[in-house]
Amino acid sequence: MRRLLLPVIAGLALAACGGKPPPRTTAAAPPRPVDVSDDTSAVARDAARLGNWPVKIGKPYQVAGITYYPADDRDYREEGVASWYGPGFHAGSTANGERYDQDDITAAHRTLPMPSWVEVENLDNGRKLTVRINDRGPFARGRIIDLSRKAAQLLGVDRAGTARVRLRRVYPGGPPEQAAPAVVVAAAAPPAMPPAIASVAVPAGRPDAPRPAAGAGWLVQVAALADAGRIAWLKGFLASFGPVNTQPAPGGLTRVRLGPFAAEHLASTALAQVRAAGYADARVIPPTNAR
Hints:
291 residues, Barwin-like endoglucanases, Alpha-Beta Plaits, 2 domains, six-stranded mixed beta barrel, 12 strands, elongated
């Protein structure tokens, strides 16, 4: 009986060998980090284009009870949570006077100079991107940078909304010792910080200036914003230029203005200072009784 079974078993084995072999299985390769930053030429072009743009640091300011101290931290590194902002702010004014473009590779930071550049590494997927700082924020606790929509898309942050990141300041125009010194705009440095390298002229709205009657003064319209944190920052920034007031505007916006000033030449002086600080669209508004 054993001899009869052997040919049968052998035949079955040959038949099995003649069939389609089972598919080969291999371990999935780990995902490769994606470095999207190094459009080095694009970053260099951006730096060259902004070569004459005034570098701003700014004076200490307070938002939601927290005081922030802007500084030219040349060795800045930090880990934390990144967020992003997009359509609701598109075409609005940034803290350095630019128009915010959600499709530019930019970001908001609470204290670094504007402009400055930061390499952002998404610790969740390994992607890296160099962004230009041109705005102030974020002011939500625990977040350290607010990316533009485009930057968030490239880093893979847009869908999740936030991501763990590592930040490192970089210098597309050369190492720190070759970089131009930053200018502190309208600010005395806080205690234990380097003194201001330069500042704008003395504010036009002096305490001893005559105070106009309500509705009879000249105003300087600086910006119309919706974000409470950016409104608070701008009010603190403008305080050195003169009295600051805010007024509600259509569409949920808030007008941020300087004044009222007793005379047109005082408003014009404040306007020149504000424009020199980067707010090119600022304008003088005459008294209501002069319209």
